[in-house]
Amino acid sequence: MRPPRLIEVTEIPLDKIDTSNRLRPVSELAVKSLTQSIETQGLMSEIQVRKIKKSGKLRLIAGGHRVAAFRALGRDVIPAKIWDCTDDWADLAEIDDNLAHAELDFLEKAVFLARRKEVYENAYPETKQTSGKELAGKRWNAPDTMSVASFVTSTAEKMGVDERTVRRLVAAGKSLGPREIQELRDAPKGVSLSDLQEIAKCGSPTDRYDICRALGDGSAKSAKEVLSRKKSPGVAVKDPVEKAHGKICDAYARAPKEARRRFVDDHRDELLELLGLEVPTEQTETPETDAEILPFNSKRTG
């Protein structure tokens, strides 16, 4: 990959910056926070742009939120570093800027790392994994393989994480298309690393689409829940009332007759109310009265 060349550091008009085709959408909340910071402390670092030779346009490399914040403040120009560089270098710079400075969730990390692997191996073909004769040739005839770190090793060092985490995130990011990424970004609950791993393992595109759709509209809490529903429709997600009813019926069926009788007696009034029947009121005992004493007349004669 050809090394980049810094052309100059200067202020450039905001309306001259091409901000299309970004890997990550701008967060309104982040822009609002950054706007307040710029107002009080100023811009801490310049944005990065590249000059396109054929058109002379300035295309944004890093600093999308800073550009949006300056526009929100009504500014016309912004400090920038202007580079002459390759497409691969510009893509790596954008990705690494986000990985280093942005608070990314697992989904965004997976998307960025999958793209970083693609760009990195395109820029450094000698780092790609190979097999068969090509692998043997690299073992015995590869003076450059030690000069450039493998993608996983390089990325793990940059992010400060282990290589296993990098591999998991890359596998998840590679399995997602633009539509699935947007659906997961819209999910009311953040997508977990476990969810992304389940998506990456899906052998069926239909399963992957169903998971992304269900997580995106909030009809499922996890990828495993979606897959469980597909295997046993209606079992994975059960109405809580239906679930409680089943437990009561099961306990009543297994109880001996005397236990059932006691249960009904203890809950008689409530059961009658639930059935819409009138609950009998307890009758008070009437006090006993003295009986009238009648004289005894015998009909027997002397």
What's a quick, concise take on this entry?
The protein is an alpha/beta fold. 52% of the residues lie in helices and 10% in strands. Strands 1-5-3-4-2 form a 5-stranded mixed β-sheet, with helices on both faces.
What does this structure look like?
It comes from Parasedimentitalea huanghaiensis. It holds the Pfam family ParB_N. Residues 10-99 form the ParB-like N-terminal domain. The relative contact order is 0.07. The chain has three domains: 1-100, Conserved hypothetical protein from pyrococcus furiosus pfu- 392566-001, ParB domain, CATH 3.90.1530; 104-128 and 149-237; 240-274. The protein has 14 helices and five strands. Residues 135-148 have low confidence and may be disordered. Strands 1-5-3-4-2 form a five-stranded mixed β-sheet, with helices on both faces. With 302 residues, it is of the alpha/beta class. Helix 1 (28-41) packs across helix 2 and helix 6 (151-159) packs across helix 7. A hairpin with a 6-residue loop joins strand 3 (47-51) and strand 4 (58-62). It is elongated.
Topology:
Layout: E1 5-13, E2 17-18, H1 28-41, E3 47-51, E4 58-62, H2 64-72, E5 77-84, H3 87-101, H4 106-123, H5 132-140, H6 151-159, H7 163-174, H8 178-185, H9 193-201, H10 205-217, H11 223-231, H12 240-254, H13 257-266, H14 268-274
